[in-house]
C-alpha cells in the first residue's frame, strides 16, 4: 500500500470518529461563534469540491498527453492531493456542519440538511470503497514501469473506472451543495 494511501486511511478514520456522536444520537454543540462555523464550512466545501473536480480534469489531461511519466506523476499526485485537500475539506465540513445543523433544529428535523448529509456520505462511500483503491492500484501498476515504457492495460482500465466513479463521487456533493444553498422544502 502506498504511503499516501496509508495517510488517507488515517484521515478517514478521523472522519469516522467525528461521525460517532451522530450515530449515537448526540447533538453537536457550537465550539465557535456561528459565523465562524459557516466560514469553516464554506472553506471545507471549497477545498473538497475544488480538489475532486480539479483532480479528475488533471488526470484526464495527463492521459491525453500519452506520457507515461506524466501519468505516473498524476497517479501519485491525485492520492497526495486527497491527503492535503479532500480529506481536510471533509473534516472541516463535518466539524463545522454538524454543529450548524443542530442550530437549525438537528439533522433529522430539517429535510434539506438530512438529504445533503446523506448525499455527502454516499459520495464518501464511493470515494473510500472505489476511488481510493483504484488510486492505489494505479500507483502500484505504474511504479515498476520506466518513463520510456508503456503502462499496462490494467492501469488504463483502472483509470477509466476511476473516471466513472469519480463523476458519481463529484455529482453527489454538488447536489448536496445546491441543497445547502437553496434550502428547498423536500418533504
Please supply descriptive tags for the structure shown above.
single chain; 187 residues; mainly alpha; 5 helices; 0% strand; elongated
What do you see in this structure?
This protein starts with a helix and ends in a 5-residue tail after the last helix. The chain has one domain (3-15, 33-182). It is 81% helix and 0% strand. With 187 residues, the protein is mainly α. It is built from five helices and no strands.
Which descriptor suits the 3D outline?
A: elongated
Which class of secondary structure composition applies to the elements? Answer: mainly alpha
- Uncertain spans, ≥5 residues at pLDDT below 50? none
What fraction of residues sit in β-strands? under 5%
Share of residues in helices = over 70%
Brief overview:
The chain has 187 residues and is mainly α. It contains five helices and no strands.
Give the topology, please.
Blueprint: H1 3-23, H2 34-65, H3 68-103, H4 111-142, H5 153-182
Amino acid at each position: 500500500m502506498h504511503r499516501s494511501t496509508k495517510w488517507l486511511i488515517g484521515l478517514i478514520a478521523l472522519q469516522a470518529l467525528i461521525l460517532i456522536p451522530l450515530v449515537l444520537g448526540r447533538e453537536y454543540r457550537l465550539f465557535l461563534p456561528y459565523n465562524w462555523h459557516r466560514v469553516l464550512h464554506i472553506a471545507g466545501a471549497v477545498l473538497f469540491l475544488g480538489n475532486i473536480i480539479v483532480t479528475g480534469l488533471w488526470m484526464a489531461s495527463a492521459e491525453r498527453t500519452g506520457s507515461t511519466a506524466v501519468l505516473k506523476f498524476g497517479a501519485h499526485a491525485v492520492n497526495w492531493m486527497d491527503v492535503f485537500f479532500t480529506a481536510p475539506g471533509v473534516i472541516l465540513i463535518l466539524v463545522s456542519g454538524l454543529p450548524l445543523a443542530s442550530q437549525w433544529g438537528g439533522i433529522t428535523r430539517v429535510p434539506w440538511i438530512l438529504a445533503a448529509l446523506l448525499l455527502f456520505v454516499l459520495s464518501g462511500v464511493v470515494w473510500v470503497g472505489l476511488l481510493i483503491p483504484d488510486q492505489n492500484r494505479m500507483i502500484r501498476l505504474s511504479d515498476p514501469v520506466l518513463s520510456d515504457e508503456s503502462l499496462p492495460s490494467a492501469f488504463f482500465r483502472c483509470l477509466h473506472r476511476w473516471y466513472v466513479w469519480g463523476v458519481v463521487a463529484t455529482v453527489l456533493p454538488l447536489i448536496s451543495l445546491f441543497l445547502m444553498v437553496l434550502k428547498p422544502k423536500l418533504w
